[in-house]
Amino acid sequence: HRHLLGIEHLSQSDITAILDLAEKYVDLNRQSAKHSDVLSGLTQINMFFENSTRTQASFEIAGKRLGADVMNMAMQASSIKKGETLIDTAMTLNAMHPDLLVVRHPHSGAVDLLAQKVNCAVLNAGDGRHEHPTQALLDALTIRRAKGRLHRLNIAICGDVAHSRVARSNLILLGKMENRIRLIGPPTLVPSQFVDFGAEIYDDMNEGLKDVDVVMMLRLQKERMDGGFIPSEREYYHRYGLDAAKLALAKPDAIVMHPGPMNRGVEIDGTLADDINRSVIQEQVEMGVAVRMAAMELLARNQRDAA
Ligand code: CP
């Protein structure tokens, strides 16, 4: 592959290859000296047109640990504000000969469009409601390490599925790896067409959580609700917020995940999110750096082979 635009383009063996390579970087990242030179001499530009904490920080750290020259474009201060288009901005940066472009954009499909115009590898860091492939890969690595496998697991994805690129990428990845997926949430936030991905849909969380191995919580993405139905947070927490009582319906060793940013007391109880016996939220962040190192190494290798 030349780019990493979505999980939809990856095969089972592509996914396994990224996760296997990422394991090496989990070990490297736990050492005091964390440096490798596999991206030495290469230029990585991060273009984030939407807010980010985890994804932007981990892509920057990943590039630096691999020896790339990393530049974070301050999009708020860029000439986009003067009316320059996304493509003109990308072409301008392309003329500076970057090797890796990491792009987050609020519009679904914007990153694919940009990838068609530039000469370097493009990594999708989240486009609208479409895909967030490195998030699904880091979630997969977290699950594989916690459960010892990434197949034949019962996995619940709960909450605002409709607006979530994280849910969409996870559905595709976990489906490709032959897991059973349940989507849990109010019908307004879990579109029925997701059964096309092979998922089962539940609006009763107490039913949906029964005997699952993994519980993945999602934030209510009010910024994408376009003034439509926004649930009352209190009512929502009562019905769909994960707390110890609801988690007790899952398997006794079920893990709790959240891609972040989380809203404590809305979709998840804060004490449960911090419970290191059940929650793997911090491991997800740790795996994010390793997975992004692996993805960038593989794309740089493909670029070198194609040259
Ligand atoms: N999970 C995730 O994408 O977080 P950020 O929006 O902080 O990058």
UniProtKB/TrEMBL annotation:
Q: Where does carbamoyl phosphate bind?
A: 54-55, 104, 132, 135, 260-261
Q: Which Pfam families match?
A: OTCace, OTCace_N
Under the heading InterPro entries, the entry gives: Asp/Orn_carbamoyltranf_P-bd, Asp/Orn_carbamoylTrfase, Asp/Orn_carbamoylTrfase_sf, Asp_carbamoyltransf, Asp_carbamoyltransf_Asp/Orn-bd
UniProt EC number: 2.1.3.2
Q: Which residues take part in binding L-aspartate? A: 82, 165, 219
What is this protein's function per UniProt? Reversibly catalyzes the transfer of the carbamoyl group from carbamoyl phosphate (CP) to the N(epsilon) atom of ornithine (ORN) to produce L-citrulline. Catalyzes the condensation of carbamoyl phosphate and aspartate to form carbamoyl aspartate and inorganic phosphate, the committed step in the de novo pyrimidine nucleotide biosynthesis pathway.
Name recorded for this polypeptide: Aspartate carbamoyltransferase
Supply the source organism for this entry. Ruegeria meonggei
